[in-house]
Amino acid sequence: MAVSAGVTRLATDCGVPYPVGMPIFRKRRWLHLPITINVTLMVLNIALMVCWIVLLARFRTWSMLTIGTIIFALSLVGLAFYLVISIRTWRLQLQQQNFVDSVTHELKTPIASLRLYLETLQMREMSAEQRGNFYSTMERELKRLDHLISQLLEVGRLDAIDQHSEPEDIALEPLLRNCASAASAHQNCEPESIHFEIQPAVIHGRRIVLEMIFGNLIDNALKYAGSPPRVEVEVRTKSDGRIVTRIADNGAGVPPHLRKKIFNLFYRGGNELERRQQGTGLGLYIVRTLVHLLKGTVAVHDRPGKPGSVFEVDLPGRGVG
After folding, report:
1. Was domain 168-319 assigned CATH 3.30.565.10?
2. 236: CB partners within 8 A, 6+ apart
3. Segments in the chain forming alpha helices (H)
4. Would you say 86 and 34 are in contact if contact means Cβ atoms under 8 Å apart?
5. pLDDT computed for residue 78 by the predictor
6. Cα separation of 247 and 311, whole Å?
């Protein structure tokens, strides 16, 4: 519909923070100075150490030679350590900047969309069908805002989440199906896009923790799946009392060099100016943190012989039947 398309286009334009790339370039220029200083000092340190060794070796002052060599070596190690810390600090700042940019975009876009839809409803007479379409779109934008705010709040209270409730035995199959239903609604996908192959299993824990783990993983799988999306949820019990849950998608997959980084706080591959997928990069960090709290592990692998990736969660539990 022309009115709806025009409003959506305007909302998207209003929501994109185009100038966000500038701080990244400033940080790159800032990094050049400590690298240059460190490299220069390291070269001077090596040159002085060589001269020291040659000079004292000529006069056969072996004790001074040993002491001086140790001091120069320690200073060289200190400079190298400082250089590594500087680079890591810059990378963290870059990740934080990307996180702020993505959150800004995620907040501004639905707010701008809601404002424009409301203004359009106030200024124009519309049919019942048009108003219904507008209301449906506004409801989706509100759910998107609610999902983002929930994730931001969850990160701040991961260590103490739901400590007021006692752990219980939770059947995994109905929990996974509920998480899949919520993720399908959030990503506007058909429920038939998700296929299940589940052995009956029970995990002892807090329900909200398990819902956050598997809800984030299934939502992530749908988001990055191919077209049409297909997600496979598989649960297998192991003889040692562990439960392995695999969530596979038919998307582009995760490159090997990013498979550990994607679970880090603030990490999102690429630059926010080139981002095609919505999100803040918090979901997988939440998953990893909560899985570790449950004494489990999470990893991502290729799908054997198929496109896409498989997120594998290994948790303590037991089979049923």
Report:
1. yes
2. 199, 243, 244, 246
3. 2-15, 21-59, 62-123, 128-156, 172-186, 207-223, 283-293
4. yes
5. 79
6. 5
Q: How confident is the model at residue 29 (pLDDT cuts 50, 70, 90)?
A: low
For the chain, the residue count is 321
For residues 154 and 24, the answer to whether their CB atoms sit within 8 Å is no
Q: Which amino acid is at 95?
A: Q
Q: Is the pLDDT of residue 202 over 90?
A: yes
Stretch among 13-27, 123-137, 274-288, 299-313 having the lowest mean pLDDT: 13-27
- Three-state SS at 94: helix
pLDDT tens for residues 99-123? 666 666 667 777 888 888 888 888 8
Most distant CA pair in the chain, distance: 99
Distance of CA 154 to the CA centre of its chain: 14
One-letter amino acid identity for 138?
M
Position 316 scores a pLDDT of 93
Contacts for 222 with CB less than 8 Å, ≥ 6 apart: 183, 184, 187, 189, 193, 194, 229, 231, 249
Query: Phi-psi bin for 295: left (phi > 0), alpha (psi -120 to 50), beta?
Result: left
Mean per-residue pLDDT, 25-50: 69
